[in-house]
Design brief:
The two termini are about 25 Å apart. About 45% of the residues are buried. With about 375 residues, the protein is an alpha/beta fold. The protein folds into two domains: about 160 residues, Rossmann fold (3-Layer(aba) Sandwich), CATH 3.40.50.1400; about 150 residues, Rossmann fold.
Length: about 375
């Protein structure tokens, strides 16, 4: 049991104006040798929305919702918020916590699954932020478990898919003619294979793919309206063609489904906690346009955002650590969970970058 002094909401961050876009993208791609013309190409996605990503406003709303839920339960813990790639940055949040005398923090990241970018990189970010802030001897930072199969994260998707299937039926399309596309960010196959502890042996897609598939199965099994098919698809690929990434791409799948006679698609942003630019552009813009081109009825399911079940679930994860709740009493909707409080050795390695120092885990 640890008597934490505060909660650290750690997220990706996003630009909040046209002048922010290229500096933000340089932060995201730092050390990867991405040429400026490629950054300009990606920048058009942000510029189509005034240079503003929805993620920071979503995080402000989530921070407020967490504070309200803590107050409702009578838990006196402040919530600090810091990002990986844009203001407010993690070192700023840590400095604020230290100045307030809050030196034992429990991190909640806005990412539910196991992979380098969605778990280990956040732990590396925390280590780097503590060092940059000069607070290595002052702050203790732990992290809640990956919550891909926590009821609070899954419930909004169950609700959203149910609504999507009902909308298709209201438009005269039977479940048997409807296909549910569970979409998540594609990652390199080398990273996917190394997601999660090596000893779990979860196949070539590692824990990342296995966790998504397991959650999708739970969501579909919970539907009151049965009969629709489903598949796991990927989006937002950014690597060179020579590098294998997780497939199939959502747009390719939409075309194939239309050719096979499908009449409706329900697009589920299963890999996302809130509306990132990858949701606004890759799903709401590109995937919906692809569906329209093929004359398919299409619905995009909401992300958890500040859904009451999701917010409550995140506080439940905090309470698990405050009260040292045993694994047997921790809710998990798949056979893969509950996931680990402390990441295992060799978990979520990055072949290109190697292992860097990270908090909240056992050293590789």
């Amino acid at each position: 049991m640890t008597a934490y002094d505060g909660i650290l909401l750690a997220s990706f961050g996003g630009p909040e104006g046209q002048d922010d876009v290229i500096p933000f993208l340089r932060n995201v791609t730092r050390g990867r040798g991405i040429p400026e013309d490629r950054l300009e190409e990606v920048a058009t996605h942000y510029r189509a929305f005034g240079g503003v990503s929805p993620i920071n406003s979503q995080n402000r709303a989530l921070k407020s919702a967490l504070e309200a839920e803590l107050a409702r339960r009578g838990i006196d813990l402040p919530v600090y918020w810091g990002n990986r790639n844009w203001a407010p940055f993690l070192p700023e949040a840590l400095a604020d916590a230290a100045a307030a005398g809050d030196t034992r923090l429990l991190a909640v990241t806005t990412s539910a699954y196991s992979s380098y970018s969605s778990c280990r990189q956040y732990r590396e970010d925390l280590f780097a932020a503590v060092a940059e802030s000069g607070l290595a001897d002052t702050l203790q930072i732990d992290k809640v478990r990956q919550y891909f199969d926590h009821p609070g994260f899954v419930a909004p998707f169950i609700e959203g898919v149910s609504g999507g299937l009902a909308a298709a039926k209201d438009n005269g399309i039977a479940p048997e003619d409807t296909h549910v596309l569970f979409s998540t960010h594609s990652i390199p196959m080398t990273d996917a294979a190394r997601s999660g502890p090596p000893e779990r042996g979860l196949g070539p897609g590692g824990a990342y793919e296995a966790q998504h598939r397991a959650v999708a199965e739970v969501i579909m099994a919970a539907q009151p309206m049965q009969g629709a098919g489903w598949s796991l698809v990927f989006q937002s690929r950014s690597g060179p063609p020579s590098m294998p990434w997780l497939e199939p791409d959502i747009n390719d799948s939409i075309g194939e489904l239309a050719a096979a006679g499908t009449k409706a698609v329900i697009i589920v942003p299963l890999g996302f906690v809130s509306d990132h630019m990858e949701v606004q552009w890759d799903l709401d813009t590109e995937a919906m346009a692809t569906a329209a081109e093929h004359n398919l009825f299409a619905v995009r399911v909401p992300t958890p955002g500040v859904h009451a079940d999701f917010v409550s679930g995140l506080i439940d994860l905090v309470i698990e650590r405050l009260d040292d709740v045993p694994d047997a009493d921790r809710p998990a909707l798949t056979a893969l969970g509950p996931w680990y409080d402390v990441c295992r050795p060799g978990c979520c390695g990055n072949v290109r970058l190697g292992f860097k120092p990270a908090l909240a885990g056992i050293a590789p």
